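Dear H.,

Thanks for agreeing to be a second pair of eyes. The structure we're designing against is below in token form, covering all 339 positions.
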């Protein structure tokens, strides 16, 4: 069957033909209908330092998807054939201290679909039933396919209360843009977005940002003087964006950091964090499954916002074009159709 894979340790992906995987008793087989291209997939496509250290080719990649159950393992009782589902792509152990205390997103034994094991850019995906998320019939396929990154956005937005706060978001990729709409829905007083790409700033405006700034031209700290940010959502992973964000935050402010810097960052901890009494929180993955309930609710009530984030839907065979658009900053979220 058709799949998109990283064939060798070099830039690029190929269309390939893979054989069927056996379904174990606690697993289900899903006929994938749509899959989103994530920043992680772009790292693997580009074969950057992170990918070199983590990915063992050949590997079918992809982890954001929606599809229909076509086979259930013998011990699976809560799901049936024909059901439309997505799934949490972090397969955790379920028995470690973190898993057993409501912090499974931090499990040391995490196995990620499309990173550590066969991915969702394939006509079929086999996954443990406990990772499934049933999709509400009100939700469009292209929206259901991206619950995973929407979950990252929701996890970041809910790390610190945003209701009544001035929120600063640095980085307006798919997750940063989703965070704009979610922060607004969660009662943020103002949302300011810092993003160098004009196309992305325009979408941030559409999604309800009160102010969008270009960090290559605008003085961010001066521009937010009238509504000093109390919450920073760092989605870019860019060192300068992080420093600017911390600089702009009010004393006692709170920062949730989701963007992953490609190398260690250097910052004046004394001036930027300690003397300002800031709280910094690292955010990884999605809370299982609290975040999924929140995203479900958000997507059901805000389909228009998600429409602005899914800018491209293409047949899976045209994946190269989708990666080109994303690499050139001309697409926000591209969804591949496997139908
Ligand atoms: Zn993802
Ligand atoms: Zn665990």
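And this is the sequence the design step returned. I haven't edited it by hand at all.
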């Amino acid at each position: 069957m058709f799949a998109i894979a990283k064939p060798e340790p070099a830039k690029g992906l190929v269309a390939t033909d893979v054989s069927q995987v056996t379904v174990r008793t606690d697993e289900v087989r899903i006929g994938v209908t749509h899959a989103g291209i994530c920043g992680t997939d772009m790292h693997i496509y580009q074969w950057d330092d992170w990918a070199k250290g983590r990915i063992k080719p050949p590997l079918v990649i992809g982890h954001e998807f929606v599809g229909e159950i076509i086979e259930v393992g013998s011990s699976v009782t809560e799901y049936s054939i024909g059901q439309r589902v997505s799934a949490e792509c972090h397969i955790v152990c379920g028995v470690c201290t973190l898993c057993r205390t409501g912090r499974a997103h931090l499990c040391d034994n995490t196995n990620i679909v499309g990173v550590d094991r066969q991915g969702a850019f394939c006509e079929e995906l086999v996954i443990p039933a406990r990772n499934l998320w049933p999709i509400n019939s009100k939700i469009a396929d292209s929206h259901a396919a991206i619950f995973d990154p929407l979950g990252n956005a929701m996890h970041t937005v809910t790390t610190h209360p945003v209701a009544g706060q001035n929120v600063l978001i640095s980085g307006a990729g798919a997750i940063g843009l989703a965070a704009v709409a979610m922060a607004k829905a969660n009662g943020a007083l103002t949302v300011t977005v810092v993003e160098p790409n004009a196309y992305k700033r325009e979408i941030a405006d559409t999604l309800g940002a009160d102010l969008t700034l270009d960090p290559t031209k605008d003085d961010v700290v001066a521009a937010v003087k009238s509504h000093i940010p109390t919450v920073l959502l760092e989605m870019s992973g860019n060192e300068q964006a992080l420093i600017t964000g911390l600089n702009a935050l009010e004393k006692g402010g709170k920062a949730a950091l989701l963007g992953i810097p490609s190398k260690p960052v250097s910052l004046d901890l004394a001036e930027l964090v300690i003397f300002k009494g800031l709280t910094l929180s690292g955010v990884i993955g999605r809370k299982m499954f609290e975040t999924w309930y929140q995203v479900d609710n958000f997507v059901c009530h805000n389909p228009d916002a998600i429409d602005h984030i899914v800018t491209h839907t293409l047949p899976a065979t045209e994946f190269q074009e989708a990666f080109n658009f994303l690499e050139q900053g001309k697409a926000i979220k591209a969804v591949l159709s496997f139908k």
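Two observations from my side: The chain has 13 helices and 18 strands. The domain at 160-282 is CATH 3.40.50.720 (Rossmann fold).

Warmly,
E.
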